[in-house]
Amino acid sequence: MGSCVQCQCSGHSSTCDPDTSICQNCQDNTEGDRCERCAPGFYGVVRGFHDDCKPCACPLTNPENNFSPTCVTEGFDDYRCTACPEGYEGQYCERCATGYHGDPRMPGGRCEECKCSLWGALPGPCDPVTGQCRCRVGASGKSCDQCMDRHVCGPAGIISCDDECSGLLISDMDRLYRIITEVTLTTPLPPPYRVLYRFENMTEELKHMLSPQRAPERLLQLADSNLGSLVVEMDQLHSRATKVSADGEQVEDDADRIHKRAEDLEQFIRDTLLGAQDLQLKAADLNQTLSRKDGTPDRSLKDMKDEIQAMLAEMRKRQLGGKKSIAEEEMDLAEELYQKVKRLFGDPHQATEDLKAEIKEKLSDHEGKLQEAQDLLHSAQEKTRQAGSLADQNQANLTALERKRSAVNGVKKEAQEDLEEMDRELGPLHNQLDDKIFVFSLSILAEARNLSFNATAAFKAYSNIKANVDAAEKEAKAAKQRASEALALALDPEVPVKEAAQGALQKSNRLLNQAKQLQNDVKENADGVAGLKGRVKAARDKTKDLLKAVNGTMATLNAIPNDTAAKLAATKTVAADANATAIDVLERLGDLNLRINGLQRNYSDLEDTVNAANQMIQDPEKNIHAAGAKVKDLEDEADRLLEKLQPIKKLQDNLRRNISQIKELINQARKQANSIKVSVSSGGDCLRSYRPDIRKGRYNTIILHVKTTTPDNLLFYLGSAKYVDFLALEMRKGKVNFLWDVGSGVGRVEYPHHTIHDGNWHRIEASRNGLNGTISVYPLEGSMAGMMPTPASANSPTDYTILDVDQNAYLFVGGILGTVKKADAVRTTTFTGCMGETFLDGKPIGLWNYRERQGDCKGCVVSPQRSDGEGTVQLDGEGYAAVGRPTRWNPNVSTVTFKFRTFSSESLLMYLATEDMKDFMSLELSEGKVKVNFDLGSGVGSAISANRHNDGQWKSITMSRNKKQATVNIVDIDSGAEEKIVATSQGSAAGLNLKENQKIYFGGLPTIGNYSMTARSEVTLKRYAGCLREIEVSRTPFNLLSSSDYTGVTKGCNVENLYTVSFSKPGYMELSGLSLAVGTEISLSFSTLADTGTILLAVGGASPISQQARNTNILNSKRKRRQSGEPYVSVMLNKGSLEVLVFTGSHSPRRVIRRPEQGLLNDGREHSLRIERLPGRSFAVQVDEEAKREAALPNDQPVSLQRVFLGGIPADVEQTSNRANIPFQGCIWNLIVNAVLFRFPPGPFSFLEC
């Protein structure tokens, strides 16, 4: 019999399917089998509240201005529209794309395509608001499709007629026309009709010859129009063919689904038959046991009860002494305990007496020696006194041991008496126990008989529906056959696709009707099952009556007194006290033995000291000379060894320096190899393994670029060398699957929307956040290029969330070696196609920088890349580039201009210096601010900007120096905001004398050759990570990739969002606030070598803007905060202990502490932290994959936390929150709140040292 469980619908539905548990009628704009995600057109994180899913405004919520039917959550409380139609772009589809015009943000506004004339408009988009095209000379109108006077317009272009030939004739005609119009023909002169008729005929002939219908331009327009119509018809035909093909694929999917359901039904029927057969066998066995004939009881329940009472009375008359052996056995155990106590306390006492006698004998032997050495060594006399005190203490311990021995003998006698009393009282207890066992056996027998009756009835009911089950099986086989026919018809190459699809659709309809008939048959069978349930209910009622009768008998048995059990418990307590006393005596004996051994060692040392003193007294002068000679020999030997170690030390220093340089070169070579953007082609036998740059954690990302025509491929596999953990991407029947295992079972999610084995490039993005995995596929080519995908997600089994891998793990991109054991859940092993750029956790994997290779591997066309301007480069934070001095170099006037984009807070942008370093100039970032330094030989000039410029946006920087004064302009290219700083050097020198053979460095300084060690002290040595473009020095442009001296520089720019921060010095990072409600989960990873520091602090104070307004009265604000009781959440390391405090604003803060004895957290390794607020007024803290630690909270009310800090806290919060600022030193990454990954803003910290 099964049990009923509550529908798991995330709090958005109260009904679900009783068989499949799939939720029905999901409310509050949710959908899914568990109402676990927002419906299309809504966004948010489903946590069980009615406002979890909010409508998408793309860009407005009214239907006329909501251009995207779907959106996805981005950030903590933001979203991104994912299906902007053609012509719309932006996060909310709020602006028109290039080539379109309009204002979607205005009610009723929309984006319309720019319909600029091909011959009359200049290349480029129209005005984004009015739609006015940029017209060529001679064209006019909104679309530039109108020809101006004195111009000829057409597909061939616009020709001006206002030249020296046609222009003069047209001018003459205009002048004649004006003269004619000015002449008054009202005089009596007769008009020249003959001349006029001739002119009229000539005009008509010329008009016919110059008719637009006969012009070549008109004929070309007609041909172009016909060609356009033909192209449109071909596009329509292609669309219809694509639709028919899609219908065929849908029919195939339906047939597969129906076939699978038929197989499931067939399996269910087989399981039902097996269960019925098993039930029949059990019923037969029970009937044979109980001598059943026709399935009815031989006697009534009353007769059975009378028989039980008679049997019980007969058993009471008899003397059951079978339990006497148990009492004897317990008495033997007590005797054994007595012998053990005797062995533990009696024998050691004798050994102690023997040892005592031996000690007295040794004391008498050494007494004479002590008397002889008394005048020479006063220290020996002191040791003798200590030995006497130890002997007195030993005697006292022996006396105490004797007293305890007498006490143990008394306890033993009492235990013997208790055992005898127990033996006398156990007899009646055994009789009562036998009676209860007999009653229980009779009740179990009665229940078995009833179950037999129910089983017989159940078997008869299942026999009745067997015919219906056979009929259902027959219908399922017929459905399977028809599905196979439909599939064969859809795939038949000899039949046209359209006709085959129509035929398959008709057969599918017939198949649907038959499936409905099969459903009706199942409903009829359900009536039989309902009757069976009624019979089972009646059997339960009979069982309840029998239980009532048995309970009456049990009440009689329960009246037996339980005094014996209480006495037995008291006896056990006395025995436990005796055992504790024995253990205490043993511990004291152990201490006594240790002291006696120490006494023996002291006397042995004393004897050796006396002998040595006698020897020294015999010949002190000889010993002194010998010691002096040995000291001199040692000095000479030390000098010789030092002379021999000098070249070895120099060699060691050189070797250490060479090894450091080799490591630097290897690191640069690896990064350079990983940055090469190439694609690898495989015919199925190209297998390559790579060295993964990864660390264990809760969050991982994989990005692949793939082009293939094979439906089954292994795209990516990362497996642990020690554990079962792995990440994998594979194709099954053309669809991409993301699989992972973090130690508690395999998770799998398939991207269901389309297949990718069409020979076009696709971009695959997969991510894992704890137990949840998500996958998206972006088509880069073909008819679906540019479409925004809808992500698919799934969860792996619970318990573990950390992927335990390191750089020793197995990493394969495109197939896997046969010698490596992969996870059984991954079905494919090879790859056929082209593999493009690949990224693991945001870091590129150089496909040609492999560790091991098998098979024939070739190159193929590079995957589509985002277009960047010529000369745009990216530096990886460990490289630099050097260019020569421009030919046009003026010592008194110099300019440097370039554009940069970065998140770096401390790095060198540009540096140049003379050979003696008296003259130098540098541009760098200090805490995200631009800083300029220069020296012309007589003093340094320096200046720094007021604002930070490391926000990841393009900035234009121009430094102009005119003799002693330097001006730096920084412009934000997107917003146009500009900042200007001015620096002036000291002294009278005005020229920067850079020689022709000296270099200018961008992004850092080389370490090989010790260049950076001799740089100016004002210059930072941290290298730049970010993008540079349009570099000019003294009006001479430079392309860093054309330089002969660079490393860590690649073409293009790809500055991604940052999720890692490093605190090498005191600082903090402030993030947006959050709400700590029931179900909220906060997780992050960290590594540090310091045992104390603030990891995270979230406070419920005011926002930074309002906080700045209150900074004028910090003392009053502090007093007010203490009184208001603002909530906070604190995570910090305190002397190796991890402390998590949660204060809801009332009562006292609740604390969870994880001690360092359970494992160090400041060992420099990666550690994960997870905080979850649980229902029932509590919260839980989990470190790595240890057991959760829970603590109670005073209520379940949400806690609003307005400000979140990482790594430390600012001074105002330190004062108002009454919490000390203990800076954190180390790395923090992947801060996730409710499955949303936080993006880190720029600040006075580094993102590149973790």
Automatic annotation (TrEMBL):
List each copy of the Laminin G domain by range: 677-860, 870-1053, 1058-1250
Q: In this protein, which residues make up the domain named Laminin EGF-like?
A: 7-55
Provide the GO MF annotations for this entry.
signaling receptor binding
Q: Where in the cell is it found?
A: Secreted, Extracellular space, Extracellular matrix, Basement membrane
Protein name (record)? Laminin G domain-containing protein
Pfam families with a match to the protein in the record: EGF_laminin, EGF_LMN_ATRN, Laminin_G_1, Laminin_I, Laminin_II
Q: Where is this protein primarily located? A: secreted
Q: List the disulfide bonds.
A: C26-C35
Q: Report keywords, A-Z.
A: Basement membrane, Cell adhesion, Coiled coil, Disulfide bond, Extracellular matrix, Glycoprotein, Laminin EGF-like domain, Repeat, Secreted, Signal
InterPro entries on file:
ConA-like_dom_sf (IPR013320), EGF (IPR000742), Laminin_aI (IPR009254), Laminin_dom_II (IPR010307), Laminin_G (IPR001791), LE_dom (IPR002049), LMN_ATRN_NET-like_EGF (IPR056863), Neurexin-related_CASP (IPR050372)
A single cellular component GO annotation: extracellular region
Does the keyword rRNA-binding belong to this entry? no
Kindly state a single biological-process term from the GO annotations of this entry: cell adhesion
Domain of life of the organism encoding this protein = Eukaryota
Which residue windows are coiled coil? 324-432, 462-525, 589-672
